[in-house]
Amino acid sequence: MENVRREEAVWTEAGNAPSGARHSRSAVLKEHGNAIWRLFFIQSSRNERTLDGLGLFAVLEPFLRRWAHSRENAKAVARAHLGYFNAGLYLSSMVAGVVVNMEGRRARGEPVTTEGIDRVATALSSVLAARANYFFDALLIPLGLTIASISAIYGSYIGLVFFLVLYNFYHFRSRIGGYCKGVELGEGVGGAFVGRLFREERLVAGCSAFASGVFAALLFVQARSAGGTAFVVWGAVAIASALALEKKLSRVWSVTAILCATALYLVVYPFVYTKFR
């Protein structure tokens, strides 16, 4: 069982890396700068057969000559990393870092097998994708967009700036920091590390729920000011209808139907109200 230590910022629990695996930031950028840059385009070659497999290969490609001892060996290493790969957007970089670590050790003669690398990468991919998708898609992005929307109600851009700063802080920490941690720890990125990947997760979840409640209240207040009580009633009916239609239709189609009906209401109601007032 690896030692567990507390760290600052996003990462909170991790195994201690061997002292020889730690490098200065300048050394890391010099050695891995090309790979880190390519990480931001890992989904640019997404396809139905390998998903992000080509993107992962593009990240690993600068290291192939270093890992391979011959031309035939280089082909074998390349084929090993051209298969199916799906680790999501945010923490696929950590999987890439783990692969770089393990392939580098294998090239130096350590007892690391190609099958072992593939097994570790596959196991980490699904776990990290689930963790990152929940944190970003279910907590962080809704929080940022809700605050931006509240700010927009009052005609301010500060909420948009807050959203961009909040999102990109965790985005860059996850992509660049995740890759560096993968390179540093290799398969030592274990359950303790993944289980507490984002230490602010509970705080972000609470803030997201609170901001959503504030936004919902403000939305009804602003709706009453803009369209009167009838518009508020229409909004409540639309929400109830969306929930009812979801049992018959998909969520996308039910929301689409309600939005179309609301758009029609906004066009027809002022005309009817003006004509028959």
What's a concise summary of this model?
With 277 residues, the protein is an all-alpha fold. The chain is built from 10 helices and no strands.
Q: Give the assembly state of these chains.
A: single chain
The tally of helices reads 10
Give me the secondary-structure category. mainly alpha
| Tertiary shape | elongated
Whole-number total of structural domains: 2
The ordered string of helix (H) and strand (E) elements is: HHHHHHHHHH
Strand content: under 5%
Termini Cα gap = 77 Å
Overall strand count: 0
Mean pLDDT: 80
**Low-pLDDT sequence parts:** 1-20
Residue share in helix: over 70%
Gyration radius over CA? 25 Å
> How is the biggest beta sheet arranged?
none
Chart the SSEs and their pairings.
Layout lengths: L24 H15 L13 H8 L3 H4 L3 H10 L11 H16 L6 H40 L4 H28 L5 H5 L5 H45 L5 H26 L1
Helix pairs in contact: 1-2, 5-6, 5-7, 6-7, 6-9, 9-10
Describe it for me?
This protein is mostly helical and 277 residues long. The chain folds into two domains: 19-127 and 169-196, no CATH class; 217-276, no CATH class. Helices cover 71% and strands 0% of the residues. The chain is built from ten helices and no strands. It has helices at 25-39, 53-60, 64-67, 71-80, 92-107, 114-153, 158-185, 191-195, 201-245, 251-276. Helix 5 runs antiparallel to helix 6 (114-153) and helix 9 (201-245) packs across helix 10 (251-276). The radius of gyration is 25 Å and the shape is elongated.
